[in-house]
Write a structure and sequence with these properties.
heterotrimer; A: alpha+beta; two-stranded antiparallel ribbon; two-stranded antiparallel sheet; 3 helices; 6 strands; elongated; C: mainly beta; Neuraminidase; four-stranded antiparallel sheet; 24 strands; 12% helix
Chain lengths: 189, 460, 368
């Protein structure tokens, strides 16, 4: 067995073809990347909800890849009426206007109600509890000013290649936004 | 958790930046009604905007990828070190897997590139582009170094491999078609903007994230359990990026060789590959009568390939409307047309009903969009069908090709460059100084016996 | 070693010996029977296809059929027929994409404040003329001489009966956000949601008083306005009716600002005012009874002069688009939905739907 050459001939037909194919592949890959790169902006993109398009369907709570959705209710305080009877906080026909669980709308008690001055109350969202179900957003938007709205929270979002919620979003509200301006907030202007 | 904490100062700065720069440009319409003036002087809190991951860290990912690919190539070809590759795998699993949650990932990047090429409006992230091209570029020179120790999916499966079973060749070859089909499907649905199915049906990302859709968590666990007995089941029989790497690796400049020096035909490495990539030396030229028959068969198969391609394209065209339904817009448009004349729904609306209401508000826009997507699919599905036909045809042709092979060597395309087989080679052991040079002739003699004694020592 | 030894050895070790032997004997390189590959492969593909069909295959996970987190006000969205005291008598669209307020002039013409200006319509919705104010008009009033007062966000524009601009009153306050106007013989009352009070002006626009401002000494609790829908109407008795929507009640003031009476309670039930801030619109019948308009659950109801609930003009089921108002992109300034109403000399109620931009006409049941 030692008589057979330990190495194949340096240039064979096969080797030549292989080298040719490799050169072609490098060129092809280069072209592909050049074409794709010409479409790249060098920006990073993240997912965000356009609050004007959101229809509060509830899918954000159930379709995020994370155990607890990265979509949270956020509060545009400058739009809030600071109502005593907040329709985002209380059930549609509460027994009493107090913090009793039976009167509260939020399924996870994520909204906190604090007294400011008569008759105004401030509402804040505990994002560790909020699941992004938009129940309060619907209540606030239907009866009130819509100061509660949903946003993808980027300290939680894992920025999936394709957002799982975006594909089931009933309002087609999910869009990619530049990572340096990652929020679409409701403002007073 | 740690990640969130470590970026706290960063997002504070981002918040400030967003307030200063961002919000002004997001102005919409007239001024809105302001809240009351508080007599107590209560100040309105600001809406917090925790920043997204900084762009610089994307470049870090790319740098880590390049470094890992380089280290993997060095370990495979220079150090020939399985141990080194194990440690690299552990690192990749931790960094790209559990730290980066398996995302950004080369497998999924196929879709970003496909969408970028098909849709001018989509800007592919630099990181996704880099994760697509760098492993392929490396594969053209160094084979599947990416699979060997950089890909977290591969690393996870490689590390759970316990008692590899031999997959029957017919099954191995048959299932080997699947990655190419999956690749085609992934490109089709990504390029049409319908879905990133490769990400959606990724079995391991839910494990990296420690949670996800029940179906995919289950699939991931099943694949891992299977992976204890069947080496890298996802890599071999599903991974679409593996299909691309395989093609690149077949024309790679350097290839993985079992022996560092020359092959003694001792056959100790014969069963060393848990991934079915080891190829034995082929017998010499067949008899002339056989040769004629084989050539005729090959001719038929070559002729059959375009037929398969056309048949696939035809089937693809037939299924085009069904495939278009994967796109949510097409589904919604169809439902809209079906229920156009029914009265608006009342009561508590389901997500589907809400989507329908949206359709009713701008039906023309929706229908035009759906028609556009359908047109794309009428192109895409025949191409996809043709691709499947072509892959099957080429597979049959390749199975009928006679390859001259004198040594035991891993298949260029199928080899994951895991470096397991190296330790089976007595020449390698000599190189490492584990065995004296004289041991080689003894080993060759021992190979004639059915039980590969030295191989066992090497494995332990 | 010889080839023979080789193959023998393999046959002993190989798990499926027969095909390998066959492959070797044919000289084919792959240890695989081609026919077997094809047959098994076909089976495999068949099973796969079947499996993907059964499991729904490629399709993305669909929308949930129900929203478990739905905000449910269904039980309030239909009206018990026994409460309905009006019949629908017609309706017409408004030639303005974003109408706000509707009033009748003494001559029986409809004046609709809206984005395009003040649209003057006849009873059947025919456009008589459009008075443009250069900005969206949020409220309108017409005095006995046919002079038109149009509230543009923070000030009033005055037009003569032919629609020519006569004067521009200065904004009463920086925060002014005018959402309601009423004219009596000598005064114009500006309902200012921004300042949360009613300005009393003379016919020249000079401010001569403030009404509804919080004043514990006069026992005036102040107006709570979460959203800009403050309205004011002057009754035949010279008293002002003001909707204090954050307190869910109607307050009756004298022109000097004394609170005479208030009534109303928060409730989604039919006799109360629903949501966080209702009612959003007011109209007065000649005999002093009230027509109130609500948003969220869009409904129009009639109350006696003392605030006793009398019946429903139209319930949420009559304004399907309005009931879904929040579903759509909201308006530019963030106000969402709502209704307003005007009453003609016969007592017929003209309900303006802000979302659908149309008027629904209701006549009292049993009226000829």
């Amino acid at each position: 067995m030692n008589s057979s050459s330990p190495h194949p001939p340096s240039v064979s037909r096969r080797q030549f073809l292989r080298d040719g194919a490799r050169v072609a592949a490098v060129a092809g890959l280069g072209g592909l990347v050049g074409l794709a790169a010409s479409r790249s902006t060098g920006k990073e993109w993240v997912w965000q909800i356009d609050p004007d398009k959101c229809v509060r369907c509830g899918n954000c709570a159930t379709h995020c890849v994370l155990e607890q959705s990265a979509v949270k209710c956020v509060h545009a305080y400058a739009l809030c009426g600071y109502c005593q009877l907040c329709t985002g906080y209380f059930e549609p026909e509460p027994n009493a206007l107090n913090t009793g669980a039976e009167n509260c709308l939020c399924p996870t008690a994520a909204i906190q109600r604090t007294f400011v001055e008569d008759p105004y109350y401030e509402y804040t969202i505990d994002e560790n509890l909020c699941i992004g179900c938009a129940k309060c957003v619907e209540g606030c938007t239907r009866f009130g000013n819509g100061s509660l709205f949903l946003q993808v929270r980027h300290d939680r979002c894992v920025n999936c290649n394709e957002c799982a919620i975006s594909k089931v979003c009933a309002g087609d509200a999910f869009q990619r936004v530049p990572a340096d301006q990652p929020y679409l907030l409701k403002t007073t202007h | 958790m740690t990640r969130r904490l470590s970026f706290k100062p960063l997002w504070r700065a981002g918040l400030l930046l967003a307030v200063l720069l961002g919000l002004g440009s997001l102005a919409r319409g007239e001024q809105r009604f302001p809240p009351p003036d508080f007599e107590s002087g209560h100040q309105l809190p600001a809406t917090t905007t925790p920043a997204a991951r900084a762009l610089g860290l994307e470049y870090l990912d790319i740098a880590v990828l390049v470094a890992a690919l380089g280290v993997a190539s060095w370990l495979i070809y220079r150090r020939r070190s399985r141990r080194g590759l194990i440690w690299l795998s552990v690192f990749s699993l931790v960094y790209f897997g559990f730290w980066r949650y398996g995302c950004v990932c080369a497998i999924g990047s196929i879709q970003n590139v496909a969408l970028a090429l098909a849709d001018p409006a989509y800007a592919v992230p630099i990181a996704a582009l880099a994760f697509f091209v760098l492993p392929l570029g490396f594969a053209l020179f160094a084979g599947r170094a990416f699979c060997a120790g950089v890909c977290p999916h591969g690393a996870l499966q490689d590390l759970v491999l316990w008692k590899p079973l031999k997959v029957p060749p017919w099954l191995e070859q048959g299932l080997g078609i699947l990655p190419f089909v999956y690749l085609g499907a992934g490109v089709l649905f990504a390029a049409t903007g319908s879905a990133f199915i490769i990400c959606q049906y990724d079995p391991f990302v839910p494990i990296f994230r420690m949670g996800g859709r029940t179906l995919m968590v289950g699939t991931g666990i099943v694949l891992l359990l299977l992976g204890m007995f069947v080496g890298r089941p996802y890599c071999r029989f599903l991974c679409p990026f593996g299909a691309l790497l395989k093609v690149c690796a077949t024309v790679a400049k350097w290839r993985v060789r079992v022996t560092p020096d020359y092959c003694t035909q001792c056959r100790l490495c014969e069963a060393s590959c848990p991934f079915g990539a080891m190829r034995e030396p082929a017998a010499g030229r067949p008899e002339p009568a056989q040769l004629a028959r084989n050539r005729r068969r090959l001719g038929w198969l070559v002729a059959l390939t375009p037929v398969l391609l056309l048949a696939g394209a035809g089937l693809g065209a037939y299924f085009s409307p069904a495939a278009a339904r994967v796109h949510p817009t097409v589904r919604l448009a169809e439902r809209f047309l079906l229920e156009r004349d029914s009265p608006p729904r009342t009561g508590v609306l389901s997500p589907d009903d809400l989507a329908l209401e949206r359709a009713r508000q701008a039906p023309r826009q929706l229908l035009e969009e759906a028609a556009r997507i359908r047109r794309h699919f009428s192109w895409g599905t025949p191409l996809f069908g043709g691709w499947i036909g072509l892959v099957i045809g080429l597979k049959l042709v390749s199975l009928s090709l006679h390859r001259k092979r004198t040594d035991y060597e891993p298949d260029r395309g199928d080899c994951f460059a895991c470096a397991r087989c190296f330790e089976y080679c007595p020449n390698e052991l000599v190189r490492r100084g584990v065995l004296p040079a004289a041991a080689i002739s003894q080993a060759a003699a021992a190979a004639a016996r059915p039980e590969p004694v030295v191989a066992k020592e090497g494995a332990s | 070693m010889s080839t023979q030894d080789h193959s023998k050895n393999r046959t002993e070790c190989g798990s499926d010996a027969a095909p390998q032997k066959e492959a070797l004997s044919q000289g084919a390189p792959a240890p695989l029977n081609r026919r077997r590959f094809l047959v098994q492969g076909t089976h495999g593909v068949g099973f796969l296809a079947l499996g993907s069909l059964v499991s729904g295959g490629w399709t993305t996970p669909g929308n949930a059929a129900v929203n478990r987190f739905a905000y449910d006000v269904e039980r309030f969205s239909t009206t018990d027929p026994k409460f309905l005291v009006y019949d629908r008598a017609g309706g017409f669209p408004i030639p303005d994409p974003a109408p706000r307020r509707i009033v009748f002039s003494k001559e029986g013409q409809l004046y609709v404040a809206g984005k395009r200006g003040v649209s003057v319509l006849d009873r059947s919705g025919g456009l008589i003329r459009l008075i443009e104010a250069g900005a969206p008009v949020r409220c309108v009033a017409v005095d006995g001489n046919g002079q038109v007062y149009a509230g543009v966000r923070d000030h009033v524009e005055v037009f003569d009966p032919a629609g020519r601009r006569v004067r521009r009153w200065e904004a009463p306050s920086k925060k002014a956000w005018l959402t309601g106007l009423a004219v009596s013989k000598a005064d114009v009352f500006l309902a200012d949601s921004g300042s949360r009070l009613i300005w009393r002006c003379d016919l020249e626009g000079k401010i001569i008083g403030k009404i509804g401002e919080k004043n514990p000494e006069r026992n005036v609790p102040g107006l709570i306005l979460p959203s800009p829908y403050l309205d004011v109407k002057v009754g035949g008795d010279g008293l002002l009716r003001v909707n204090n929507s954050g307190r869910h009640r109607i307050e009756v003031y004298t022109a000097d600002g004394d609170l005479e009476l208030f009534w109303g309670k928060p409730s989604a039930a039919i006799e109360g005012f629903c949501g966080c801030c209702n009612p959003v619109g007011l109209a007065l019948l000649a005999d002093g009874r009230h027509i109130t308009c609500e948003k969220g659950l869009p409904r129009v109801k009639r109350y006696a002069a003392d605030g006793t609930f009398e019946g429903v003009v139209a319930g949420p089921e009559s304004f399907p688009k309005n009931a879904q108002a929040g579903k759509a992109r909201d308006s530019e300034d963030g106000t969402m939905g709502g209704l307003d109403a005007a009453v003609d000399a016969r007592g017929w109620v003209y309900v303006l739907d802000l979302v659908a931009a149309e008027v629904q006409v209701y006549q009292p049941k049993g009226a000829v």
